[in-house]
Amino acid sequence: MNENQHAGSLRASTARESMHDMSPSPVEAYDVIRHSALLAERLAAAQAELEKKRGLKAEKEWLRAAGDLLGGARAEPGAHRARPRPAGP
How far apart are CA 89 and CA 82, in angstroms? Predict the structure, then answer.
């Protein structure tokens, strides 16, 4: 793995970690669950279109990370039980 690939991998990993730390509201959790199959299709289509273009490395990595996150969440047992954010003042 060269330096650019390693840096890209670190950025994608950091994006995954920061996205994983965010807790959705009950409405957001429902929307993610309800529309996850459609979102997966749209992400795959966007990835396919972006791969045809030159450059845009960060965007390609971001879409790949988003697809990986969504795929992993859909594959996990109990993934449908998203933890809602506690109600604030």
Answer: 22
Long-range CB contacts (within 8 A, 24+) of 35-40: 36/70, 36/73, 36/74, 37/74, 39/70, 40/67, 40/70, 40/71, 40/74
Structure letter (DSSP) for residue 89: -
Question: Are 17 and 9 in contact, with CB atoms under 8 Å apart?
Answer: no
Q: Evaluate whether 25 touches 85 at the Cβ level (below 8 Å).
A: yes
pLDDT (tens place) for every residue of the chain, 89 residues total: 555 555 555 555 555 555 556 787 888 878 877 888 898 899 999 999 999 999 999 999 999 998 888 888 777 656 555 555 566 65
pTM beyond cutoff 0.85? no
